[in-house]
Fold:
Amino acid sequence: MPETAPLPIAVFLSGSGRTLANLIRHRDEHDLPIDIRLVISSRRDVRGVDIARDAGIETMVIRERDYPDANGYSAAMFAPMAERGIEYVVMAGFLKHVLIPDAFENRVLNIHPSLLPAFGGQGMYGHYVHEAVLARGVRVTGCTVHFVDNEYDNGPILHQRSCPVLDGDTPDTLAARVFEEECLALPEAIRMLPVKA
Structure:
């Protein structure tokens, strides 16, 4: 049986690059069939940029404030994709809202730290999600990998993993437990993606 060619992807990020580092680890240690051809950061001074460059991945910084409107910013983010043969974009801690071009419908993945549709929407990211989960008193949370559309946390769900909310949890302890699930969920979801012939 022939091996599947690695899936050409780009990664959008805004911060520490933990999710990017996890993808690189799964590529190198667990044969995740991805070819990370480009990383685009919304900020210059973040660890994610260093991780990408240290891994020899082409890196760009495209800042929202350098564009007059959402259409201009989104066009700049997606313009490099065609010439690099990118099939999917993975949002890995990318905190800006971009409009998804028609050509990338169901080709942009995001991972969200709750079981969507619960605890999603504008302003619901990072610790805000875990604080809301604890305040609501739910007993099970987790993470969701979904396709991105032009509404916050709204696109079709591809994959979810769950974990318990424990007595005595803080936003930090809960975030750490959910992130362990994210580290498994995103590679699992990528393996589910249809590959172009």
Summary: The mean pLDDT is 94.
